[in-house]
Write a structure and sequence with these properties.
This protein is α/β, with parallel strands linked by helices. The protein has eleven helices and eleven strands. The protein has two domains: 164 residues, 3-Layer(aba) Sandwich (D-Maltodextrin-Binding Protein, domain 2); 116 residues, D-Maltodextrin-Binding Protein, domain 2.
Length: 333
């Protein structure tokens, strides 16, 4: 009997040891799975320079998004070639949720403006969500004594070869928005493309160029200081963040409406569970009172769509901007 009890005890000890060893063996795997699902840091590639409207949005949501994901958000500005450099980096990234991008209309304009690109839109990307819209405003250097659309157009017509306008790069929404106005009104100005919005705005404030279409959040500090003067919003209606600035529509140009939007993308092949987790984090981020307050102050309108809506939206925008690019006759090598 004693022998049997000893044998049973020994067997129980062996079984416990085997279970403990099995648990110990699976622990690193469990930790690895959790680490893969929730990385310590998420790289948020911005195909825009610091100081752009999208950059302001990314900075406003950075902390709340990191909290929602349980990871730090590293904002990485990659504005080269108007943003093509940053988009190429995203397209080449591993589809694990560790690398994302906050983008603007530029992503659907480039395919119509450039003869070739190092990626396909939307095929090389996974849409997470279209997040909202950002108002844009045409601003001039205050040395030009114009205060409204009619005065500005009269200036362009009086000096058809003299005025210059800047943008964050060839083929960007800021470039196209200005070209559309020139096309719509039969006026001319010389385009000066920059490597990013920040350097362009610095030159505009310094008087090296004469006017530009920029995101309202980018323009606001310079409008308040008097360094720049607003001529009109490109939106269909006035916005609460700048009630004093009229639209071009109400100034006699009803056809001139250009909407800017921002969206989150991942690389091609991002798994559906990761997309859903990212979308949930975006919803929590934009529900944060602090983020909502910053978005309102910037003039951004949050309209968070679903991942299922994002793909068809991007494809429809590709068609829309292809027609606009043809009309404005903007084509680059």
């Amino acid at each position: 009997m004693t022998h049997d009890l000893t044998l049973h005890a020994t067997r129980r000890q062996c079984l416990r040891s085997a279970v403990a060893l099995a648990a110990a063996a699976t622990l690193p795997l469990a930790r690895t799975a959790r680490a893969a699902d929730t990385p310590a840091a998420v790289r948020l590639v911005l195909p825009h320079a610091a100081g752009s409207g999208v950059d302001a949005i990314a900075r406003a949501m950075q902390n709340a998004l990191g909290k929602a994901l349980g990871a730090s958000i590293v904002v990485d500005n990659q504005p080269g070639a108007g943003g093509i450099v940053g988009l190429q980096q995203l397209a080449r990234a591993t589809p694990d949720g560790h690398t994302l991008s906050l983008v603007s209309n530029n992503v659907v304009i480039f395919p119509s403006v450039y003869k070739s690109l190092p990626f396909q839109m939307p095929g090389d990307f996974t849409p997470v969500a279209v997040c909202g819209t950002t108002p844009m405003v045409l601003v001039v250097h205050p040395r030009w004594q114009v205060t409204d659309a009619q005065g500005f157009l009269a200036l362009l017509k009086a000096r058809p070869t003299d005025l210059t306008y800047g943008s964050g790069g060839n083929g960007t929404i800021l470039h196209l928005a200005a070209e559309l106005l020139l096309d719509e009104t039969g006026t001319k100005a010389r385009h000066i493309p920059y490597k990013g919005v920040g350097p362009m705005v610095s030159d505009l404030v310094g008087g090296q160029i004469d006017f530009a279409v920029v995101a309202l959040p980018t323009a606001q500090p310079h409008l308040r200081s008097g360094a720049l003067r607003a001529i009109g919003l490109t939106t269909a209606e006035r916005v609460p963040a700048a009630k004093e600035i009229p639209t071009f529509t109400e100034q006699g140009l009803p056809a001139y409406v250009v909407d800017a939007w921002f969206a989150m993308l991942g690389p091609k092949g991002l798994p559906a569970p990761v997309v859903q987790r990212l979308h949930g984090a975006l919803a929590a981020t934009f529900a944060s009172p602090e983020v909502k307050e910053m978005m309102d102050r910037q003039g951004n309108v949050i309209r968070l769509g679903t991942p299922e809506q994002a793909g068809p939206f991007l494809r429809s925008e590709l068609d829309k901007y292809a027609a606009i690019v043809r009309k404005a006759n903007v084509r680059l090598d």
